[in-house]
Description:
The strands form two sheets. Strands 2, 4, 5, 6, 9, 10 and 11 form a seven-stranded mixed beta sheet that branches. Strands 1-3-8-7 form a four-stranded antiparallel beta sheet, with no helix packed on it. The protein is built from no helices and eleven strands. With about 120 residues, the chain is an all-beta fold. It is globular, with a radius of gyration of 13 Å. It starts with a strand and ends with a strand.
Amino acid sequence: QVQLVESGGGSVQAGDSLRLSCTNSGGGRILSSSIWGWFRQAPGQEREFVALRRWRGGSELYADAVKGRFIIDSDRSTVYLQMNSLKPEDTAVYYCALGSRYETNRRAFNTWGQGTQVTVVS
C-alpha cells in the first residue's frame, strides 16, 4: 500500500527557505508512469497546484506563482519541494500527491499525504 507522509513544514521569515519531503511510508509499489505533485491550500481557498514531475524523473512543471523560487525533485520513494525566497502569500498547508496523469488538476491525483503547515511571516 502506498502511504504518503510529509515533513519539513514550519514557520519562517519572508525571504527564508524550507525543504519539504514526502515519503512513501507504506512501502507499496509506485507505478513508473506515476506523477509526483505538490499542492497547497490557504485558509478559505481552494487547493491549488504548485509543482509536479514524473516519478521516473523530468518534465517538471510549476505554477506561475512559484516559478523560479520552488524546485521539485524526487527519488524512487520520496518527493521534495525546495522553497526559496518565501513570501507571506506562500503560507498554506502543503500536500504531496501521486497521480496517474500529467495534469495540474488535483482530480488527476488519487493518493495524498496528510499535509504540512508552512507559515511565512513578514
